[in-house]
Amino acid sequence: MLVEKLIGIPVYLLTTSNKMIIHMKKIKKFRESILVFLTHRLALPLLKKIRKPEVFPHSITSLASFDEGTLGKALADFLLQKNLPLLSYYARHDIKHIILEYDTTEEGEVCLQCFMLGNGHLSIPVAATVLYGFFTMPEYWPSFYEAIIRGKRSAKIHGWMWMNLLREQVGELRLLVNVSK
Asked: What is the C-alpha to C-alpha distance for residues 172 and 67, in angstroms, rounded to an integer?
């Protein structure tokens, strides 16, 4: 049987709770693959065509040489740690992960977009990700709600000139974001 091959345990030995755990892991894996497909295979290529390409003046190597504690250095470390490429048209999104401290997990991706929604930024990617998260990830609803409230209480970041902040200290930027209105 497939389950036995995947986990190495005969199905009849599994308890109901173990079966539920296996089932939930499969659902999460499926959801995650849909989210990756929607963002990386549909949204990113579409945004590349619609948006004016953003000139990103740094390579990952040059970012890695920035002073410790700067956003540029943190971006290089983040990309290397997550084994992600530096995509000039996506760097702004990765910078938001660093400043807002949301992971690149399915929960973290939706929380980041929930924050942006709460912060007053409504766009197709934000709306699509938030809706997808609320419809398919009920176990994370408290985190999503918390991110929306955090976004509402935080300083507005939509107009920030992200590429001009690379030499700024990450800690100071986080303080600026988290200052309540």
From this structure: 14
Which is nearest to 150 in space by CA: 107, 119, 123, 121?
A: 119
Name the DSSP letter for residue 67: P
* Residue 24 CA to its chain's centroid (Å): 21
- What contacts 98, CB < 8 A, 6 or more positions away? 71, 74, 75, 78, 170
Helix (H, G, I), strand (E, B) or coil at 18: helix
Q: Which letter, b or e, does each residue of 138-169 get, where b requires 16 or more Cβ atoms within 10 Å of its Cβ?
A: eebeebbeebbebbeebeebeebebbebbeeb
3-class SS shares of the chain: helix, strand, coil, % to 5: 70, 0, 30
The whole-number pLDDT of residue 70 equals 98
Backbone phi, psi, residue 137, to 5°: -130, 60
Span 90-101, average pLDDT: 93
For residue 80 the two structure tokens come to: 């290397």
Q: Strand, helix or coil at 70?
A: strand
pTM of the model: 0.80
Confidence of residue 125 (pLDDT cuts 50, 70, 90): confident
For residue 135, which amino acid is it? F
Instruction: At 113, list the tokens.
Output: 């977009």
Cβ atoms within 10 Å, residue 39: 19
